[in-house]
Amino acid sequence: MTTAHDAKSAQSRRVRSQQSLMGAQRQQIIGLLMIVSALLLIVAPWIAGYPDTAKDAHRNELGVGVIVLLIAAARFIWYPGKWPDLVVLLAGAWMIAAPWALSTQKTAVFDGTQVMDVAVGIVLVVLAGISLLMLKLSERHGDRQ
Fold it and tell me: pLDDT tens digits for 11-36?
């Protein structure tokens, strides 16, 4: 014979389990979107056929893309903490600032690199911000998975 306390405890465990599953799904969706953004940074110069005028920008895209790709792929293996999200946030902020920091806006031929860098940077900043917010909320509720 179960008591009301046992039934309430079982229901509480079920709710926590559902919240954990939804949190994990959200983390995987964010990880997948980060992977898509990273792959875009890595392959865009070859797909779009950018001219050779902005080699620094292409190296920058490749470097940031590889870093974000590795961090995003790790999200599927380990529970992401605060530091990976902060690295992605900084990478996104760098991608937003990169056209001006690398002076690619002064190239003779506009090849779309600047627009893509800023757009992907904004996406990365938003995704990292959402992930950090979700981490904070899950810690507040005592749910880490």
Answer: 656 655 555 655 677 788 899 999 99
Q: Per-residue pLDDT tens for 66-109?
A: 999 999 998 888 877 789 999 999 999 999 998 888 776 565 55
In the chain, what are the domain boundaries? 1-49, 56-144
Using the CB atoms, write b or e for 34-69: b if 16+ within 10 Å: bbebbebbbebbeeeebeeebeebbebbeebbebbb
Q: Which residue has the tokens 């865009």?
A: 44
Q: Greatest CA separation found in the chain?
A: 81
Question: What is the residue type of 50?
Answer: Y
Indicate the pTM of the whole model.
0.78
Write out the two tokens for 11: 């229901």
